[in-house]
Automatic annotation (TrEMBL):
The keyword Coiled coil does not apply. Keywords: Cell membrane, Ion transport, Membrane, Transmembrane, Transmembrane helix, Transport. It is a multi-pass membrane protein. InterPro entries: Cat_transpt (IPR003445). It comes from Suicoccus acidiformans. This is ATPase V.
Length: 462
């Protein structure tokens, strides 16, 4: 029995290590290629550390970079950036599922279920078909997004540049990377009055960040509705899984509340929305809410936002998207479990219940571990940057930390002001935010249970 446990633990640790190292190795290879003069615009001189942080950000799809993609890299360099984004965004899902596939012979069925639930999948059956479906859905979504964006970009940039810009932004949107190749630091600010561009990007960000398992379940329910006689939406969607229910409910709640809060705060800000018509204010408030959670695109200059809007954006960033997709952050399911725990304590319930289902204590503990991990990383990263850069505004530094760890990548134009050591801190935060929670949960999977009982005691709180 001990030998079997040791083998399970070795397999999990080995998979976790390879999972983390794959991102590091890919980032190093990417930075070496990006540093080649053949990748640069004429007359560009950029340090290797800037290439490295940009490569890490591309691979971790965080959107945070020390240089402008369009101003620094030529077409070949931008094409490499696009490949790194696609591999980083789609590769993380592939690696997760490959890791599960490799472990399924060594891990108990119970632990497999817990891990699969964490990543938004509840079975190891039809594994290859699942991966093929991910690739197929990704290609379809990105191609549709490219076509829609071309309508706005081709008349502005011409056929070749417009088509490439559309493809780049579509891939960066679906993978929640937030990069663009227009040049400059304005992201999509030039399109803040273009509903086609902003809503297309929002749709791609939500599709990629909500998790593939959720979309597969919704697609199955739609087929049931279409084939049902009589057709009834209520009957087709009445038995959604708890995971899909939580993801959809949390996503809708965060988007609606975030949009209203942003609109209420910024509509009185003369530097951002005051002079815009109501529809443009709401459109950009919605766009900010969608992209602040994980994507990193901006249609407003974040430097001009009110302090509360910056703080609110940080909270959205650290929550992130859903498991099993391209989004970062703690994940909406983690936050939902913690909210359900608080609700149960306030109402005096013995168990934590969501959607008429009891949440196990082991799942609650794992959610607490993820939240604690993010809190410790924020404390460590923020403290270090405060010591390194006392001359920079403290709130702006905290904003940078949240966006690096949450892999949203929105910056207050501070990244290129940081020292090389400061860049290294951001690199650690980006990698930790992308692979940290997953490796933590893998490490907690198959722990040997030790039944040791001690006398109970009380510790005063508050």
């Amino acid at each position: 029995m001990k030998g079997m446990y040791a083998m399970d633990r070795h397999v999990i640790q080995s998979t976790s290590l390879r999972f983390t190292l794959s991102f590091v190795v890919l980032a190093i290879i990417g930075s070496l290629l990006l540093a080649m003069p053949i990748m640069h615009q004429p007359g560009i001189q950029v340090s290797f550390s800037d290439h490295f942080i940009t490569s890490v950000s591309l691979v971790c799809v965080s959107g945070l970079g020390a240089v402008s993609i369009g101003d620094t890299y030529n077409f070949l360099g931008q094409l490499l950036c696009l490949i790194l984004i696609q591999v980083g965004g789609l590769g993380i899902i592939t690696l997760i599922n490959v890791g599960m596939y490799r472990m399924h012979r060594h891990v108990s069925l119970k632990d497999q279920y817990l891990l699969q639930s964490t990543f938004g999948r509840d079975t190891n059956q039809d594994f290859s078909e699942f991966l093929l479906a991910i690739y197929r859905y990704t290609m379809i979504a990105e191609l549709i997004g490219t076509g829609l964006l071309m309508i706005a970009f081709v008349p502005r940039f011409g056929w070749f540049k417009g088509s490439f810009h559309a493809l780049f932004v579509a891939v960066a949107s679906f993978t929640n990377a937030g990069f663009h190749n227009f040049g400059g630091s304005g992201s999509l600010e030039a399109f803040n009055n273009n509903p086609l561009v902003l809503l297309t990007v929002c749709a791609l960000v939500i599709f990629g960040g909500i998790g593939f398992t959720v979309w597969f379940e919704l697609a199955h329910k739609l087929r049931d509705y279409w084939n049902g006689k009589p057709r009834s939406i209520r009957l087709a969607f009445h038995n959604l899984s708890t995971h899909t229910y939580v993801v959809l409910r949390m996503t809708v709640w965060l988007l609606i509340s975030g949009t209203l809060v942003t609109w209420f705060v910024e509509t009185r800000n003369p530097k951002t929305m005051t002079d815009w018509p109501a529809y443009q204010q709401l459109l950009n408030a919605f766009f900010k809410t969608v992209c602040a959670r994980t994507a990193g695109f901006t249609s407003l200059n974040y430097v001009d936002l009110r302090p509360f809007s910056k703080f609110h954006s940080m909270m959205q960033t650290i929550i992130g998207g859903a498991p099993g997709g391209t989004a970062g952050g703690m994940k909406v399911t983690t936050v939902a479990i913690m909210l359900a725990l608080v609700r149960s304590e306030l109402l005096g319930y013995e168990r934590v219940v969501i959607h008429r289902r009891t949440i196990t204590s082991s799942l609650i503990k794992k959610a607490l571990v993820v939240i604690t991990f993010f809190a410790l990383m924020i404390f460590a990263g923020y403290s270090t940057l405060l010591i390194m850069h006392p001359e920079i505004n403290a709130l702006d530094l905290l904003f940078e930390v949240f966006n690096a760890l949450g892999t949203a990548g929105i910056s207050l134009n501070l990244t290129n002001q940081l020292s090389t050591a400061g860049h290294f801190i951001l690199i650690i935060l980006m990698i930790a935010g992308r692979v940290g929670p997953i490796t933590l949960l893998m490490g907690l999977m198959n722990r040997q249970k030790q039944e040791i009982h001690y006398p109970k005691t009380d510790i005063y709180l508050g």
